[in-house]
Amino acid sequence: MPRTMPQTIQPALAALPQTMHPRNPGMALDMAWIRAARANRSAIERRCATLPGRRSVKGAHQAAWLLRAVSMIDLTTLSGDDTPGRVARLCAKARQPVRADLLGALGVEGLTTGAVCVYHEMIAPALAALDGSGIPVAAVSTGFPAGLSPFATRLAEIEASVAAGAREIDIVISRRHVLLGDWQALYDEVAAFRAACGPAHLKTILATGELGTLQNVARASLVCMMAGADFIKTSTGKEPVNATLPVGLTMVRAIRAYHGVTGHRVGFKPAGGISRARDALVWLALIKEELGDAWLTPELFRFGASSLLGDIERQIEHHVTGAYSAAWRHPVG
């Protein structure tokens, strides 16, 4: 039998901010700030080691946080064998990410994922499947995942995806600019990508697993924000090492520093390797402690994930019924 549900979940979800924030306009490249940026790996790793034990939420509070995490997922399919049918199924899951009977037991309505993320060729079927939902389509671009296409081709790819209806563009930077310390080249590249996006939001993927050091991650984060990125994102999901807490902490502290200097809020998206509900809670704790409640909204925080949703739904069912279910009961698409 379902458990008796406390009346705290919907209010807890509604309590977090929903305000629209102005886009980051960027600023001139500040080389003195870039050169001064440092990242103390041992201190960062010690801080990250404390996170799993510092925020232990249970019961209705945990369910509320997990449902909030669902609203922040960019539900993603980026496979060579993607088809319109697969994308349509994924979009159906984005519209109804948690089974209706479970949401009904919790008194929650209107829950969707933050976006659906696809390749350019799948924008049209995604838009058709999401029509009327208000869920944005995000498209990966600029020679994803390596970013080694000719520059003009990468710009044209962005423009084509925006023209096709993508409201968010996930671009990849040229890693060589970071590895060579050519910050002007990185700034110019991202600024051009931002201009090509027009009204679409620019999510800049750093591919942190290929940048070598946390100091490079910190500096690249600042340069991308100075160039006008609306989000900075850890990974493509295709690197050997993707989203890790030390990388995340380095990036969110760069976001905090940028906000302190400019007053502009930039979003953050960890992507790749986040597949368990407990990991999502740790990432949310990191955001709450380092950036505050203003960032706990789909406007400023997203998970790049697909399998994460299935595990969260299993945890929600356990909260409602007291029993764990098989993963096949919660298909993603």
Automatic annotation (TrEMBL):
Superkingdom field: Bacteria
SMART domains cross-referenced by the UniProt entry: DeoC (SM01133)
Gene Ontology biological process terms from the UniProt entry: carbohydrate catabolic process; deoxyribonucleotide catabolic process
Keyword set, alphabetical order: Lyase, Schiff base
Pathway: Carbohydrate degradation; 2-deoxy-D-ribose 1-phosphate degradation; D-glyceraldehyde 3-phosphate and acetaldehyde from 2-deoxy-alpha-D-ribose 1-phosphate: step 2/2
UniProt keyword annotation of Protease present: no
Keyword Repeat (UniProt): no
GO cellular component, as recorded: cytoplasm
Enzyme's top EC category: lyase
Pfam families according to UniProt: DeoC
Reactions that this protein is recorded to catalyse: 2-deoxy-D-ribose 5-phosphate = D-glyceraldehyde 3-phosphate + acetaldehyde
MF terms in GO: deoxyribose-phosphate aldolase activity
EC numbers: 4.1.2.4
Family as reported in the entry's similarity comment: Belongs to the DeoC/FbaB aldolase family. DeoC type 2 subfamily.
PANTHER family for the chain: DEOXYRIBOSE-PHOSPHATE ALDOLASE (PTHR10889:SF3)
UniProt protein name: Deoxyribose-phosphate aldolase
Organism this protein belongs to: Rhodovulum bhavnagarense
